Amino acid sequence: GELIMDEHLSPRKLQVLAGVDDLQQVKALEMRVDTREISLGNFGVHLPNLRELKLNNSLLVSVRDLGTSLSHLHVLWMARCGLPDLDGISSCSSLKELYIAYNNISDLSQLTWLDHLEVLDLEGNNVDDINQMQYLRLCCKLSHLTVEGNLICLKPNAESEEELDYNYRAEVKKLIPHLKYLDRIPASQT
Question: What is the pTM of this model?
Answer without folding.
Answer: 0.92
